[in-house]
Amino acid sequence: MVFDYETSTILKFTKPGKAAYVVNFDLGTPRMVPAMPLEYMERLMLQNEIFRDNLRFVGIGGDDGARQIITRQNIVTGKPARWEDIIQLMVDDLGFIKLRHNHGIGYDDSYAFVSDDFAVFDMRPANVFVTESGVIVPVDCIPVRFPPGKREFFDK
């Protein structure tokens, strides 16, 4: 990461030759898999759509065979969210339903949430912050838009 204090943004780089992770339903159930670059970009667009974030694609860096996707995101200052803050944002403010378990996606202690169209995984204090003014801001969760017929998986 590179902090750009002049613009109050941070440049984020994927690991060389990687595009982070996404959730797919290719085998019928949700599972976290290494992302292809376009899948990762779709994940970032969902982050913007769900949380009104401002993640932006900057470009591609790195060497041949070890390319990195570079994005820009607003700097968020504050403290890690409490579990109650995460539930407040997702359930009370955004109308999601908290799942009983995270289906093995993200860190073991992370929460997962669903709505009619989306699921958001890996919601935990390390990925969600509360600003000094009390705004709850997710910075590195894993959102997914449901493929046709897959929302019902979470109603079981």
Descriptive tags:
156 residues, alpha+beta, 4-stranded antiparallel β-sheet, 13 strands, 17% helix
Radius of gyration, Cα only, in angstroms? 16 Å
Distance linking N and C termini: 40 Å
Order of helices and strands: EEEEHEEEHEEEEEE
Spatial strand sequence of the major β-sheet: 1-2-6-5
Question: β content, as a range?
Answer: 35-45%
Q: Treating each run of at least 4 consecutive H or I residues as one helix, how many helices?
A: 2
Q: Helix coverage percent of residues?
A: 10-25%
* Structural shape: globular
Whole-number average pLDDT? 90
Please give the domain count.
1
Strands, total number: 13
Helix/strand/pairing class, anyone?
Answer: alpha+beta
Largest sheet: 4 strands, antiparallel
Low-pLDDT ranges? none
Structural overview:
The protein is of the alpha+beta class and 156 residues long. The protein has 2 helices and 13 strands. Strand 1 and strand 2 (9-13) form a beta hairpin. The N and C termini lie far apart (40 Å).
How are the SSEs ordered, and which strands pair?
Layout (H helix, E strand, L loop, with lengths): L1 E3 L4 E5 L7 E4 L6 E4 L2 H15 L4 E8 L2 E9 L4 E2 L2 H11 L3 E2 L12 E4 L3 E6 L4 E3 L5 E3 L3 E4 L11
Antiparallel strand pairs: 1-2, 2-6, 3-4, 5-6, 7-11, 8-9, 9-10, 10-13, 11-12
